[in-house]
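During the practical work, I selected for study one protein's amino acid sequence and its backbone structure tokens, as given directly below:
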Amino acid sequence: MAGTVSLAATAQTNNNMNSTNTTELATFGGGCFWCMEAVYERLPGVIAVTSGYAGGHTENPTYPQVCGGDTGHAEVTQIKFDPAKISYAQLLEVFWQAHDPTTLNRQGADTGTQYRSIILFQDERQKLIAEQCKLAAQKTFTQPIVTEIVPLKKFYPAEDYHQGYFDAHGHAPYCQMVIAPKLEKLEHKKIIAPVVQTPK
């Protein structure tokens, strides 16, 4: 993908830009939040990643409710990042490669509206960047991108047992069969680091 973010590019950016006390938030959904969380934790410049729910109408949803498909919410990850080290556009470049944005309400064997591809923007600037990045990304896919781009109304953090799931349960079957191969693919492309980058 043209303009793909890489660890080398991020490192070069880090050397050319001073870190500030300013942080920003990005909220993306690309299938199971366990997968997306594991990807974004491995990006330099990302400070924290929280799995949760957004895009729906039910207040304070639970995991069983979201899985039931009636809340309107998607499984999402909210990413706290340092824009002096990694940009919102670079996070989006990883987003397009971390899941298949051309499958409607589905990622692999995970099906349902809660697994839809979605970008929830914080402000008009993020909306514009997301729309521009989507147009650029479309050139690399033969099928139309179905990713929703909508305003973030409210983010609900998921239950504690979902947070840091891959790092805590890396030997679980789902982690081994779905998440680990995805991380290995992105590591091979030098898109993410082999270890978690977020501070503990």
